[in-house]
Design goal:
homodimer; about 325 residues; seven-stranded parallel β-sheet; about 50% helix; about 10% strand
Chain lengths: ~325, ~325
């Protein structure tokens, strides 16, 4: 410890909850300090098991996650919950959920809860969520739940970074059909049919099973399971946790590293694209040279394709 | 003329309709030959007046455009019609429309008709449409209609490149409200309320007028006009053409060059972004070095942000 006290990274690694909260805020605000922090803690990550939970609004995801969190806590493992709402620019709704949750886990310092809302940047929320999970991971969290509402591209990107993906469906809302159509179904490792006391639970299970029947699985490949729950009563929660553990055991024996590698690649591609476009925006498109080129296009003495090639030749070390 | 005959560019400039059709196909297929052609003809463009026409399906855009085309032809000016359907990956529907149109303008070699459908590339259709318009322009077409169905981002991008933008609405379908909500309303220079024999035409005109009343226009700035038509009967078509001519006169006296410059800038930015991402995809992300970096991220010996910086440093001449 220096005279100025431990750094934020050191405090995160020491599992100081206020430091973790502060670090996630830096990430959420897309600050340079946040990037610097991730660089410092990254080599201390990779231990946590990340569980992605998504599904349409009202599917009971929060209750399900809370129940699973309690189950995890029984083993002594530390839990992190990141609730993401891609559809809302404000975290008001999520904050309400937070307050209810804080009551459920109020006396348990082994549960860290955080909500994140969209900042409107393309893909920004998925990146911020992944970084938030890295921070919890570095702080010694054993199991991280990432809970997100909806079935769109943002959710796919968010769930893609999880070690296991749970898609929660609920009978008789019509949302099930919408979810079945969306790409999110293809990334589900476990389907949770929640609120099985409602009409249509069997029909929904049959529909999901029929969809799964459309493809085949190779030896050693995980075939998605369907688990029925009534989260409010705790019904099916032990079975769901057993399915998660079964997935984890099989993954760690086989495809786990492949999946993490795919995740690293996805992340790197995303960062590269973002940095490149930012470079273009701040360094190239704001230059006076660009205005001269646009004038030449306007007067038809230069065509747009040649102008683009000219700029890229100046910008890139090697050009196609 | 060489022993091999005139080049495609020369034939386009000589207004050979088969060469024009072939050139547009090269553009549509996103070939290098298409790019090369645009480079050759670009300095011969900039004469045509481009009219963008959009609106919800069923608003009667095709009929309207056909009527306007007949009006333009009365002055002897050559007409091009590019019908774009961003929602369809196939041009079947547009082709049917083409056939009907070809009957309307069958005996008139002064009308060139072409339909274009999406290739699924992000923004690709807008680029292809703009290039198709350049080809018609180079071939001596005086007035080019670009007709597109819908009110989404694709349509905004397509209409953005026009010299004047017509948004067609139709009473009593509910689509009007959807259109009013969408960004397309902000780029309309002229609102066409078509099918005025239907109920609700007055209400729709009042709604559009109310929306226009929400902002103010500076001296010399064009205030969007509302024109009522019943295109199938030709009602309102002379008034609509008069509005287009009034817009053109005012634009040419003032903001015309500004608008064309904004278009050149939009185009150049779009090309740069596309070329940069293609360079990333084909040159950088396929390199063996990238795999080594991903492995290092997977083993946590390198964080994704540092990996991204490392790649960009190799790729860019100057790095932030």
């Amino acid at each position: 410890m220096t005279a100025t006290g431990p750094s934020l990274a050191e405090r995160v690694l020491a599992a100081d909850p206020r430091a973790v909260a502060r670090a996630i805020s830096l990430i959420e605000d897309e600050t340079e300090a946040g990037v610097s922090l991730i660089r410092q803690i990254f080599r201390h990550t990779g231990r946590a098991f990340v569980i992605g939970v998504t599904g349409p609004p009202g599917a009971g995801k929060s209750t399900l996650v809370d129940r699973l969190a309690v189950t995890v806590r029984e083993s002594g493992d530390k839990v992190g919950i990141i609730a993401v709402d891609p559809s809302s620019p404000f975290s008001g709704g999520a904050l309400l959920g937070d307050r209810i949750r804080m009551q459920v886990h109020a006396r348990d310092p082994g549960v860290f809860i955080r909500s994140m809302a969209t900042r409107g940047h393309l893909g920004g929320l998925a990146r911020a969520t992944e970084d938030a999970a890295l921070i919890l991971d570095a702080a010694g969290t054993d199991v991280i739940f990432i809970e997100t509402v909806g079935v769109g591209q943002d959710e796919v990107d968010i769930v893609r970074m999880a070690d296991v993906s749970l898609v929660t469906l609920v009978p008789g809302t019509g949302d099930d059909v919408q979810a079945l159509k969306a790409g999110i179904m293809e990334i589900a490792d476990i389907f949770v049919i929640n609120k099985i006391d409602r009409d249509g639970a069997d029909r929904l299970a049959i529909a999901v099973e029929a969809m799964l029947g459309l493809r085949s699985w190779t030896e050693g490949e995980w075939r998605p399971r369907i688990v029925r729950t009534q989260a409010t009563e705790g019904v099916g929660v032990p079975e769901l946790w057993a399915a998660v553990r079964a997935f984890r055991a099989q993954a760690e024996a086989g495809s786990f590293e492949l999946r993490r590698r795919a995740r690293a690649e996805f992340r790197l591609r995303d960062l590269l694209t973002r940095h490149l476009l930012k470079h273009l925006e701040t360094r190239v498109l704001k230059s006076p040279e660009l205005n001269a080129l646009i004038d030449r296009i306007g007067s038809r003495s230069l065509d747009p394709y040649s102008a683009s090639s000219e700029i890229l030749a100046k910008m890139l070390k090697t050009v196609d």
